[in-house]
Every structure is written in structure tokens, then in C-alpha cells.
Amino acid sequence: ELQEAVEEVLPDLERDGVRVFYLSSASPTPGVEALLPAIEAAPDEPLPARHRASVTASSKAMYIYTSGTTGLPKAAVITELKLMMVASLGRICGLRPDDVVYTTLPLYHSAGLLVGVGGCLEVGATCVLRAKFSASQFWADCRRYNVSVIQYVGELMRYLCNTPKRADDREHGVRMALGNGMRAEVWKEFLQRFGPVAVWEFYGATEGNAGFINYTG
């Protein structure tokens, strides 16, 4: 999906000594490595502690590209502490180790990566990823993978409400939804149609220093 964009800046990245990977079994781009073979060949044992001996709470964990809530688009610094704080959102909302979390959100944004995948790592839950959101296949996927928690942005829920009504709309095991940006009328329609799902609406900016959770529903 982002191959052309990566190849455009690859010479600059190589000049700066940055290694680039595709999360795939093979790479179509010279200079970009395929990550899946390395993951599959990695041992199950924990990494030696020396690899993280110099890591502190203020160390840079990653960069998340943002659309520019506080100005022009930029790569926002995510420290180890911020990563752990955002990943704990799921646990705060009641995420459990036996949950199966379904996310169709892109992993280059904070919600999908830090809240979704990070939240699962934080509590030991299972994460089900879909490469691309599909309104028509959403609930079928939830049934197929025994999903108990879904992630959303407001428009995603609107798309679900706009699909043709089905007799099995309430036949799923989803108990909780985590996300942001859902309009009040969509919220009401979603619950009326798909059943008593606990909706935990939150707000936060990747480069911000505060967040909000509507824990009362």
C-alpha cells in the first residue's frame, strides 16, 4: 500500500543508516527487507536483558505520523512511558486476557497500534487484524473469530449502521467497543440495532499530553 512512498524516500533513509522492512514474506524493493521470515525464525526465549539495559521511560519507542493536530503533519515522538500509558487504556476500560480484540484500523496511527495491538500485549489478550475495513464482512468476522471487543472511529460505526439490516445483526459475542468520534445519533442507532455493547469513547492526540474517556457511557 505504501510501497511507492517508501521507495521515493529510500535513498535518503539508506544514507541516514535507517533499515526499512515490509511486514511480508518477500520484498519487491531492493534495499527493503522482508520481516516475516525473521519473525518466524526468531527463538521463543525472551531477549537478553542487555539489549534493553539503556532503555528508560523517556527513551524514544517509535514515531507515529500524525495529520497535524498542533500544526503541520509531523512524526510525533512516542516515548516508552507514553506507549505504556496509551496501551493501558484497554485495561482501564475493562479489557481482559481472555478477550479477542478486532481492529481494522491502520497500524500507522496510534489507535490501531498503541490502543489495539499495544492494549492486547499489555493484558495478554488476542488481537485479530484485518488488512482493510469491510462493512459487509465486519460481523461475519466477529462471529468467525469469536471477537469480544471491537475498535472503531466514528465513521466506521456509521458505515455499519448503513448496511442492510439482517436477522442475525445481534448474533455476535461483542461486549465492548473502544474508539472515538461517534456521533450521538449513530451511537443510539448502533446500540438499538446491534445490541447492548458497552461503548468506551475516548479522545486523545498522538502529540498531546492529555486524554479523556467517557467511562460513564
TrEMBL record:
It comes from the Eukaryota. One of its GO terms (cellular component) is plasma membrane. Gene3D superfamilies: N-terminal domain of ligase-like (3.40.50.12780). The keyword Ligase applies. It holds the Pfam family AMP-binding. Residues 34-212 form the AMP-dependent synthetase/ligase domain. Keywords: Ligase, Lipid metabolism. The keyword Nuclease does not apply. GO terms for biological process: bile acid metabolic process; long-chain fatty acid import into cell. GO terms for molecular function: long-chain fatty acid transmembrane transporter activity; long-chain fatty acid-CoA ligase activity. It catalyses: tetracosanoate + ATP + CoA = tetracosanoyl-CoA + AMP + diphosphate; a very long-chain fatty acid + ATP + CoA = a very long-chain fatty acyl-CoA + AMP + diphosphate. Belongs to the ATP-dependent AMP-binding enzyme family. This is Long-chain-fatty-acid--CoA ligase. It comes from Rhagologus leucostigma. The lineage of its organism: Eukaryota, Metazoa, Chordata, Craniata, Vertebrata.
